[in-house]
């Protein structure tokens, strides 16, 4: 049986849909950090977009000042300059793969998308580590041996605050696109093996 390098019609449609979804991710909150404490019964929220911070940023900055953490400002992060373009690049890449209809490009895109996801999470961890550990010696409140690094994902107790770090709607869409891409890549690989055996 003659093998073909073309993708299935379903996978091509999924690539195009993921492309559109990634365009939306640029404008949606990708990650959120929620802070709960008795003095803030409604909670505090920091939302991270591809290009800005939102939520109760000023209140959180005020609290950070007391424990010696740096205040959060968009201009201090190069990520907010480049991230919209990186996501836009992947949106175009998904579209190009769907249009090109070549199986090998699905594999290449999957590897690139996976690497970007890993690099992004490592960068986010380093960002949280630096902000939680590099404290000002002139802070009004000092707790020996205490650091204030939020969790990469999940829950962590920081003094009297409970910190939750979870994906927001844009992050869940990004993860879903990655899972769909992984599904398409695996299915295309299986189809190749089945065709060769036949």
- The quaternary organization reads as single chain
Please give the alpha-carbon distance between the first and last residues. Answer: 7 Å
Strand count: 5
The average pLDDT score comes to: 91
Order of helices and strands: HEEEHHHEEH
Count of discrete alpha- or pi-helical segments spanning 4 or more residues: 5
Transmembrane segments: 12-31, 82-100, 107-127, 169-186
Protein name: Copper chaperone NosL
Keywords: Membrane, Transmembrane, Transmembrane helix
Organism: Sphingobacterium kyonggiense
Can you tag this structure with a few keywords?
5-stranded antiparallel β-sheet, elongated, 198 residues, 56% helix, 5 strands
Topology:
Elements: H1 9-25, E1 31-37, E2 40-48, E3 53-55, H2 57-67, H3 79-100, H4 103-133, E4 154-158, E5 161-167, H5 169-197
Antiparallel strand pairs: 1-2, 1-5, 2-3, 4-5
Organism: Sphingobacterium kyonggiense
Keywords: Membrane, Transmembrane, Transmembrane helix
Transmembrane segments: 12-31, 82-100, 107-127, 169-186
Would you give an account of this structure?
The protein has 198 residues and is of the alpha+beta class. It has one domain. Helix content is 56%, strand content 16%. The protein has five helices and five strands, in the order H-E-E-E-H-H-H-E-E-H. Strands 3-2-1-5-4 form a five-stranded antiparallel sheet. It is elongated. The chain crosses the membrane at residues 12-31, 82-100, 107-127, 169-186.
């Amino acid at each position: 049986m003659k093998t073909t390098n073309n993708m299935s019609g379903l996978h091509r449609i999924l690539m195009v849909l993921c492309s559109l979804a990634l365009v939306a991710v640029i404008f949606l909150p990708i990650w959120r950090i929620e802070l709960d404490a008795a003095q803030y019964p409604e909670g505090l929220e920091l939302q991270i977009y591809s290009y800005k911070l939102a939520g109760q940023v000023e209140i959180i900055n005020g609290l950070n000042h007391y424990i010696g953490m740096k205040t959060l400002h968009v201009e201090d992060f190069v990520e907010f300059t480049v991230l919209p373009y990186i996501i836009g690049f992947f949106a175009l890449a998904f579209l190009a793969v769907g249009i090109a209809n070549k199986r090998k490009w699905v594999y290449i895109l999957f590897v690139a998308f996976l690497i970007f996801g890993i690099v992004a999470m490592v960068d986010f961890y380093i960002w949280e580590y630096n902000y939680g550990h590099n404290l000002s010696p002139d802070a009004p409140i000092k707790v020996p041996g205490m650091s204030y690094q939020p969790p990469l994902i999940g829950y962590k107790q920081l003094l009297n605050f409970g910190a939750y770090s979870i994906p927001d709607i844009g992050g869940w869409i990004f993860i879903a696109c990655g899972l769909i891409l992984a599904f398409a890549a695996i299915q295309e690989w299986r189809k190749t093996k089945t065709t060769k055996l036949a």
